[in-house]
Amino acid sequence: MTDKRSVAERCSAAAKEYDSSKGAQGWRGPEAVFGLMYASVGSGDSLLDIGIGTGLGSVLFHKAGLLVHGMDLSREMLDVCREKNIAEELKVHDLTLDPYPYTTASLHHAVCIGVLNHFESLDLVFREVSRILKDNGIFGLVVVDRNPEEASSFDVEHAGSRHTMFRHCKAEISDLLGNHGFEFLRELEFTVPAHKAGSQPMRMKAYAVRRMKRIEPEN
Hints:
Shape: globular
Distance between the termini: 43 Å
Oligomer: single chain
């Protein structure tokens, strides 16, 4: 994963302008995930937003009546999210450290929409979501999609600095599902428009997966 301090500093500096900048970039991750999950969630269900930031990914779920819980590394991002009054609780936590601050089988659903491109390995996130979700809970996520011929890592420039991001292919996601007790529901591919002349649109993929029922130990 990229340097934690540099990620935190970028998030802090951009907190106030984050929502408007994402809109200008044509970011459609929240809509894609909400669309994939809508038929499987209900008003009054709890939702964990992993890397909630300013709450951009949870607004639609809040409007649909879900009870949003969120965690993020950036206190500044969480302050902006808190001002929107969309979350039941917000916690500061480094997403690279486990365990996440929630008890086992305590929440109905989870989303992780704008941060997995910073993770080279998604194993920790899937492991913790699997632990935290109730049986049959839905996990919605967005990754930068990767074709077999593409490298898993790539460099981007943002706010005058250069940092590494990561792509994840469907085969990798499928392995994670099998390893951590999930089953595939549906997916949607979309693109993020190029942010500067001469660059290519970024190909994204949203997934909705279900936490399978835990096998009870025999007496």
